[in-house]
């Protein structure tokens, strides 16, 4: 009897117990959406606009540009020189920051994203907008992690000081020191360079805009870590550009900085560890890019709107060498473990086409 009573009261209490586990979601004023934090409700309309009108061609030029902007805004902070980090200053103070050599090409990105940033400036600050667009850009790239997003960054106060954005012709030592000064370990730096899996260059060799860094620039896969470890044999356009070294596949470009990070003893084993490990890349890139989004910000004052960021499509392939290339083309750099032996993709040597440009339409 007593047992039966205890059982029935447990059953009655069950919904309340479950309620503690499944946190309630606030229904938004639009009557359609719901969010964990009510302050995030205003972002659904922005998300819809960006997904339908900016990232409608998937993981292409606009998405790549939005991700690059995340970095170029956030890294504008230094313990000595100052700067506000992920504050939107690259947009608001573009008249200053676009004069920095390392921001070459960001003018194109702002031409594409700027109208959206302006349109929604009554809803979000420039700093929040840039990080939101970056998180959403990843949601259209198969294989990317579902990254966290928080809002509440104040408006930027001033332009970033110059010389804080790494250049592709910087040494490994200089790159690691720059990131180290704002709290990023070598492991986190290499993880962040997973971004170059969905990327290309317009301005390193201006004769060939949209030249991808790996053979799959519309997929967030580990190919960048594979391709960059292969022996370079050609320039996709003209040789002799600052920050560029030879690449192994026609139509792709290799940055000198990626090349050196894959070979320097400080980072080569880390680089290699991502080549065959999609899961590790997703986890560590996701954490590091979120950390980037908090630079210069008081994290405790920000509101978690991560539930606005959709899950990206899954990665369905598996790591492999480009057609006609194999383990014998690897420039082994890590001294303590061998580069993984991967299958070679079938077919004749690739000629990777350029990434169609957002402003071509
Ligand atoms: C050592 C640090 C880095 C260096 C030296 C570097 C350098 C470059 C260069 C030179 C370009 C080509 C720009 C052009 O000519 O159009 C580029 C593109 C890009 N970078 Fe990086 N980068 C670094 C780190 C990062 C990080 C941390 C991210 C993001 C988290 C990132 C995301 C991108 C993306 C997405 C593009 C492609 C942009 C597009 O296709 O329009 N990069 N990077
Ligand atoms: C670029 O800066 C100018 C002022 O220098 C400003 O009017 C414009 O809105 C800025 N662009 C963006 C995208 O914020």
Explained architecture:
With 361 residues, this protein is mainly α. It has a single domain, classed as Peroxidase, domain 1 (Orthogonal Bundle), CATH 1.10.520.10. Helix content is 37%, strand content 4%. The protein contains 13 helices and eight strands. It has a two-stranded antiparallel ribbon with strand order 1-2. It has a two-stranded antiparallel sheet with strand order 3-8. Strands 4-5 form a two-stranded antiparallel sheet. Strand 1 and strand 2 form a beta hairpin. Helix 9 packs across helix 13. The longest helix has 20 residues. The radius of gyration is 22 Å and the shape is globular. The termini are far apart. The structure holds protoporphyrin IX containing FE and 2-acetamido-2-deoxy-beta-D-glucopyranose. The site of protoporphyrin IX containing FE (HEM) has 27 residues, from helix 3 and strand 4. Keywords: Calcium, Disulfide bond, Glycoprotein, Heme, Hydrogen peroxide, Iron, Metal-binding, Oxidoreductase, Peroxidase, Secreted, Signal. Pfam families: peroxidase, Peroxidase_ext. GO terms for molecular function: heme binding; metal ion binding; peroxidase activity. Its cofactor is heme b; Ca(2+). It is found in: Secreted.
């Amino acid at each position: 009897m007593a047992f039966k009573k205890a059982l029935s009261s447990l059953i009655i209490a069950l919904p309340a117990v479950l309620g503690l586990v499944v946190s309630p979601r606030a229904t938004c004023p639009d009557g359609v959406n719901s969010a964990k934090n009510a302050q995030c409700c205003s972002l659904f309309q922005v998300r819809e606009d960006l997904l339908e009108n900016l990232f409608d061609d998937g993981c292409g030029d606009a998405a790549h540009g939005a991700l690059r902007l995340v970095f170029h805004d956030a890294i504008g902070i230094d313990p000595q020189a100052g700067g506000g980090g992920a504050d939107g200053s690259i947009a608001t103070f573009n008249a200053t920051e676009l004069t920095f050599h390392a921001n070459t090409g960001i003018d194109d990105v702002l031409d594409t994203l700027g109208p959206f940033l302006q349109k929604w400036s009554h809803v979000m600050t420039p700093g929040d907008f840039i990080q939101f667009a970056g998180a959403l850009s990843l949601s259209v790239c198969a294989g990317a992690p579902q990254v966290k997003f928080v809002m509440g960054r104040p408006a930027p106060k001033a332009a970033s000081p110059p010389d804080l954005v790494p250049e592709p012709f910087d040494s490994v030592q200089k790159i690691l020191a720059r990131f180290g000064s704002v709290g990023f370990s070598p492991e986190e730096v290499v993880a962040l360079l997973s971004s170059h899996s969905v990327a290309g260059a317009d301005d390193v060799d201006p004769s060939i805009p949209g030249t991808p860094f790996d053979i799959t620039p519309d997929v967030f896969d580990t190919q960048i870590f594979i391709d960059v470890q292969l022996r370079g044999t050609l320039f996709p356009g003209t040789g002799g550009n600052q920050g560029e070294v030879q690449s192994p596949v026609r139509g792709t470009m290799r940055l000198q900085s990626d090349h050196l990070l894959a070979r320097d003893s400080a980072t080569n084993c880390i680089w290699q560890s991502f080549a065959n490990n999609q899961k590790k890349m997703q986890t560590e890139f996701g954490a590091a890019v979120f950390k980037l989004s908090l630079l210069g910000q008081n994290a405790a004052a920000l509101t978690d709107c991560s539930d606005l960021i959709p899950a990206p499509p899954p990665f369905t392939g598996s790591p492999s060498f480009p057609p006609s290339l194999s383990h014998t083309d690897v420039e082994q750099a890590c001294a303590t473990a061998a580069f993984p032996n991967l299958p070679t993709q079938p077919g004749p040597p690739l000629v990777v086409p350029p990434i169609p440009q957002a402003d071509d339409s």
